[in-house]
């Protein structure tokens, strides 16, 4: 068994409390001395786990994919969506199949008939593994992989009222680089030595895509162990050289906080956390980042830097906890995808907060609802609002004035800038 499979097995064992973290170095040393050894077998031979636990760990790589039922109708929809260059597919009651292409949500085609609530429900019953049904009822949605290839198609099954819906995110066919997504400025994140970097943004705003590109940049340019903890392995990875440890939340049946602790137990130099862990895990994230001295990048489903900082300050109130946050936090970046002026595709706009000393002083004293004072500290040069990014994209003719204005945060300032004597645009 290869190194990456063994690392995933060890992470699962730690997350399930079958293996104590202090024993990891000795187990790794034993595996290194036994080429081809299976971590689950070794743990069982040493009496750390029993035979049932060994079987469970040995199957954890393929268990989920084997249980997801392939639906011929869905397969045909996905094939058609991929041929049309769509980024996602949606099956909802009272509509024919819908796909998103070039920012627009539209019908997959005139040949597809309208789906009834019962048809969608029957697809859910056939596709959804039995063990995920309770999670769907509890949360109202569940995320899982669909298909047996790599990268996988991410499927979200949700429930609104009495009706179900299915949303599929199609994987990118090629590895992603920062220049290709217009985010070369994010390369500075890969050079940060240690600490916490938060990447915020609403659903579908490019956080996972940015992480995939950052992982490739870090893998090429930084030594050490890189661990990518993701909801699903949905992005293509083609890279020679040292191995990257990829762990999918969907493949581990354990509490998410425990999976996060297990990822830190793998002793990463860089940990990329591209999965929903919830606001309650932010304190754990800050504490473990400070303890390990790693560079940790985590996504947070908030639309702006201010919202992300409010969550962090709310979970780490004034006092020792806030001091730890100020010492650990390096940067918060928020993404928003804006339609290109050509009408084809989207380009990323971003706002960036850098936790320089002056900002840290303000952050120590600020209440969760007082982020504007933190942004203004020390002259405000450490904070780039999204308006600045939108203005540059508008000046370069990449987006229209209307699209920029809809997404800017300080509209009165935008109007002043637009009517300034030296304002110009190629658009």
Characteristics:
427 residues; 19 helices; globular; Rossmann fold; alpha/beta; 14 strands; single chain; 3 domains; 8-stranded mixed beta sheet; Beta-Lactamase; 6-stranded antiparallel beta sheet
In short:
This protein has 427 residues and is of the alpha/beta class.
Record field, number of beta strands? 14
* Total domain count: 3
Measured as a percent range, the helix fraction is: 40-55%
CATH class placement of the largest domain: Alpha Beta
Structural class: alpha/beta
- What gap, in angstroms, lies between the N and C termini? 56 Å
> How is the largest sheet built, in terms of strand order?
9-8-10-11-7-12-13-14
Which parts are unreliable, with pLDDT below 50 for 5 consecutive residues or more? none
Q: Write down the Rg.
A: 23 Å
Strand content: 15-25%
Largest sheet: 8 strands, mixed
Considering the protein shown, what is the CATH homologous superfamily of the largest domain? P-loop containing nucleotide triphosphate hydrolases
Shape: globular
Looking at the overall shape, the CATH architecture of the largest domain is 3-Layer(aba) Sandwich
* CATH topology annotation of the largest domain: Rossmann fold
